[in-house]
Write the structure tokens for this entry.
Amino acid sequence: MPLSFGDEKMAVFSIVKLSELEGAKRIDAEYYKPEYLRINQRIKKFDNYLLGQLIFSFSSGRNLSQIDYYSGKIAYIRTQNVRPILISKEGLTSVNPSMTSFDLLDEGDILFVRVGEGVGNSSIVTPHWANNTFSDNVIRLKIKELNPYFVIVYLNSKIGSKYLERVKKGSARSLISKENIGLIRVYKPNKEIVDVCKSKVIEAQQQIIYSENLYSQAENLLLEELGLKDFKPKYEKTYIAKLSDAFSAHRIDAEYFQPAYEELMEKVKEKNIELKPLRQFILSIQKGIEPGSENYRDEGKPFIRVSNLSIHGFVDKDQKYLSEELCQRLKGVYEPKQGDFLLTKDATPGIAYVVKEQIEGIISSGILNLQINESEINKEYLALCINSLIGRMQIEKDGGGSVILHWKPEQVKRLKIPILLFSTQQKIASLVQQSHEARKKAKELLEIAKKAVETAIEQGLGPQ
């Protein structure tokens, strides 16, 4: 008996025989979209497996007490760290090794975001990430028969991404379970494709580590010049502030007068480093735009929100899109260009990034686009200052007392920037640029691996 599935918005219908329903017997219409059925039929032409046949261990991590990443030896991988193919260090925390026992990861484990933002994202545990642990909203797969490096590239290819899109739907809240992930079909590759996937993923991981080391060198050079290399802010529980200071600052929240902030500035002054307000380097400021959630689309041009910007560039994190037509109307003012200086002001204020390559997309109202006077300061150096300890603590002070952080334009302009010799600024900027190039190389290597898999499928290249 055939079942008819329809999508009223798109006026697209699929007719599927009851006998052809697979695995979990899904009967939600979206699961049988024609594009999904075409993908499934293409993979069935190969020797293939259902992913469920490859899983010999399926488990989630634990909800553990977290400490600062640099204070612990065991990294605690949470949903925000599970990024396409490779684990991200951004926002990483750790757990105390002396705590009660927890599962440790092995090379070749595949991690999935189980539920919530980023659901379906998947990463592989490279040797660099082995012997760490993971959270309760992250699922670990151990697989047999196929090389896990091939599987992770396949899952993040165009075909694999469509499969994941297909299986995680059908409920009020998207989630990954053993039952629905087990419905993904994986083709059996030849040895050449497996070797390409493994070598490119491992090399990309090495490039990421190299990039992080270069960025750390740049940050350490800055902190050494400022006399802050070993500075550990001491946050006092009780302290006294003058009423006159409260009146002049127009602030009465206790956090604003935390002595640690003044201690930081005193350390810099001891080195006779000149501090200038950011306003002296700004030629113009353009705030992004909020077109309204009713204009969000599943496809189109990226709408770049605060969550899509990091100190290393743009990230595809819960990405929203705008229509081509709307972007054409907005791009003249709100599309960032190569060389633009972007700075977040809301939610996670103080993320600074100099745009390295021309991109297509529209920035949200939580992001400022600053035009910087480059004859007065190096832009990459300026971005590092804002992203480093001296910038973070000033922004932390400005944002004190707020439930949702908002960094006002006047506060942005008052941010104090340390002025080092231009030659030193250039040296720091060079390290940041080299860091970016290594990260760009890593991305290119992963794209080569994905393209190899996609080409093999297009050309019908199975095992030899």
